[in-house]
Amino acid sequence: MKAVVSRVAEASVTVDDTVVGALPQPGLLVLLGIHRDDTSDKVDTMARKLHELRLLRGDSDSSGDTGGTGSEESAATLGAPLLVVSQFTLYGDTRKGRRPSWTAAARPEQAEPMVEAVVEALRARGAHVETGRFGAMMQVHSVNDGPFTVLVEL
Question: Is 134 known to be catalytic?
Fold first, then answer.
C-alpha cells in the first residue's frame, strides 16, 4: 500500500463536471494506491499513519515564528480534513520500455474495498474524509501548501 500525501490549502475532485469531494478547509490530499499483494492487515496502519503524521503547520514552526514552514501537527491534532483519491498509477513500473506496466497494482475488485476500508478506518478515528469516485475519470484540483509532499509506503 502506498500513499502520496500533500499538505494542501485546498483540494477537490470533479467527475463529469460535478464536484464529488472537496476539503472544507486546509488539510491533506491523499493519493492512495493498493498493491496486488496487499491484505487488509495494512488498512488500520495506513489510516493511523495518514491521520497522525505530523505534516501540517501548527500555530508556529520549530523556531517559534508564526506562519513558518514547520511541519509539526497532524490531521488528528488539528482536526484537519483529508481528501482520499484512489490512484492505481502509483504502482506503475517504468523501469523497462516507454510504457508503464500496471501488473503490481491491485485489480479493481481487490483495490476498491481496501480503499474504502482505509477511508472508513480514518472516519472511525474521527477524521473528516472526503473522497473521489473509484474507477471514474477524475480531475483532481489542489493548491499545495509549501509545497510539502511525502510518500507513505507500507
Answer: no
